[in-house]
């Protein structure tokens, strides 16, 4: 089978099933309402990377949704089971999904899906990204006072995120940097903003802004000393990024993609990209 078409699916309580096997009921609230949580992990050497950090975030997301989540050990086993059926020498993308289950009651639907890394993701690692800013329509601090906006929660309701990326594609750019109504850079629809400012490797403070606390950016900042950086969490306006020593979008499967143009203005290639990619353990593209 062509690698890009390959899928591995494992279902909690059933194990690995054929990729075409039906597993969601028509009245599953994950499908009806986008009511559920998920995590995406990089699969390397036949195992999910940073699985503990992802499971911890999944538990926090589920708690915010008052969603009963299977035990972390069971989720870790499910993830490992799916990854073990994926060829160990091929990198992959693991999505671990837990819905609220049938509307009429019943257990959550929990499954793991491993698929190939998209060509566009590989291309972005190599060539970087042209990015446009787009308003998220809320002030940076607003989501702290409005927990129903689910700031910091990785829920299954990603229609807005996907619509933002389609909007970007329609404008001929690769990705988006969401900006708050009061003008601060927040995050991408599927990525965390990271930038270098002199000796500091920076990201946006998740607790103050409601952005998703990215596992990749967290790992990068926790290991920043290995590339000669101090770690910092700061608010930044997009215009200030033009003076940075590097701007990246970070996420689990892409690792790092360098922002090479922001709102049509070219950003110079950063001399730090290779060292940061090495910190994340991704091979040279
Ligand atoms: C909205 C959003 N922000 C940030 C990220 C990056 O998070 P991570 O590094 O944990 O993949 C993601 C990942 O998909 C995301 O969806």
Automatic annotation (TrEMBL):
GO terms for biological process: carboxylic acid biosynthetic process. It comes from the Bacteria. The keyword Signal does not apply. Gene3D superfamilies: 3.30.470.10, D-amino Acid Aminotransferase, subunit A, domain 2. Transmembrane segments: none annotated. One of its GO terms (molecular function) is lyase activity. Keywords: Lyase. One of its GO terms (cellular component) is cytosol. The keyword Zinc does not apply. InterPro entries: Aminotrans_IV, Aminotransferase-like, BCAT-like_C, BCAT-like_N, Class-IV_PLP-Dep_Aminotrnsfr. SUPFAM superfamilies: D-aminoacid aminotransferase-like PLP-dependent enzymes. Belongs to the class-IV pyridoxal-phosphate-dependent aminotransferase family. This is 4-amino-4-deoxychorismate lyase.
């Amino acid at each position: 089978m062509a690698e890009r078409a390959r899928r591995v699916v494992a279902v909690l309580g059933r194990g690995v099933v054929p990729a075409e096997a039906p597993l969601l009921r028509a009245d599953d609230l994950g499908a009806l309402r986008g009511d559920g949580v998920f995590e995406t992990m990089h699969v390397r050497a036949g195992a999910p990377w940073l699985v503990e950090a992802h499971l911890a975030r999944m538990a926090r997301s589920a708690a915010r949704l008052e969603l009963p989540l299977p035990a972390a050990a069971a989720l870790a086993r499910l993830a490992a089971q799916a990854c073990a059926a994926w060829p160990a020498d091929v990198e992959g993308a693991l999505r671990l999904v837990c819905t609220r289950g049938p509307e009429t009651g019943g257990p959550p639907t929990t499954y793991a899906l491993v698929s190939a890394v998209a060509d566009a993701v590989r291309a972005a690692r190599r060539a970087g990204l042209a990015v446009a800013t787009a308003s998220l329509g809320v002030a940076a601090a607003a989501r702290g006072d409005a927990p129903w906006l689910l700031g910091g929660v990785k829920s299954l309701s990603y229609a807005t995120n996907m619509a933002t990326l389609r909007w970007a594609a329609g404008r001929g750019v690769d990705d988006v940097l969401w900006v708050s109504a009061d003008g601060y850079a927040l995050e991408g629809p599927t990525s965390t903003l990271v930038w270098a400012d002199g000796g500091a490797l920076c990201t946006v403070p998740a607790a103050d802004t409601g952005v998703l606390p990215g596992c990749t950016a967290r790992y990068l900042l926790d290991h920043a000393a290995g590339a000669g950086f101090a770690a910092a969490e700061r608010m930044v306006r997009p215009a200030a990024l033009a003076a940075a020593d590097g701007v990246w979008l970070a996420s689990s499967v892409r690792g790092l993609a360098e922002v090479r143009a922001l709102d049509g203005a070219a950003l110079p290639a950063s001399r730090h990209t290779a060292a940061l990619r090495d910190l994340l353990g991704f091979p040279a593209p």
